[in-house]
Amino acid sequence: MATKIDIGITEKDRKKIADGLSHLLADSYILYLKTHNFHWNVTGPMFQTLHTMFMTQYTELWNSLDLIAERIRALGYPAPGSYKRFVELASITEEDGVPKAKDMIRQLVAGQEAVARTARQVFAVVDKANDQPTADLLTQRMEVHEKNAWMLRVLLEE
Questions:
Q1: How is residue 7 annotated by DSSP?
Q2: Which listed site, 24, 30, 72, 149, has its alpha carbon 20 to 30 Å from 79?
Q3: Domains along the chain?
């Protein structure tokens, strides 16, 4: 029998927060996979810049997955962990082709912005529940994704 969780957040709020974090985890995982795919397959005159930038971004995303999943667990709920479940929960679609470099950048801008939006949607519940650890995690994720979107977006300017 599981021990009751008494951390000052109601079970109902913990469930809502865990559900929101599950969407964040799914978006983050799909974006990780897409970014890694593009790192492997980018070509063209921006190859070196994009290859390096994509590696930096997918490495950061990979490291964030554990933080998000462990927060879901700390709230008392199982973290989703299958491709099938991630696809069901994510607002980002997978890419199974090899787009041109500029299209890769556009997709990654959209993906970075989508993850920021997902984090922001969960924030209202987290704030109301007085859940500072999750608020801190979400704030950090929004900052990273908004900055990444900006850095990618400037590469599309003429």
A1: S
A2: 149
A3: 11-156 (1.20.1260.10)
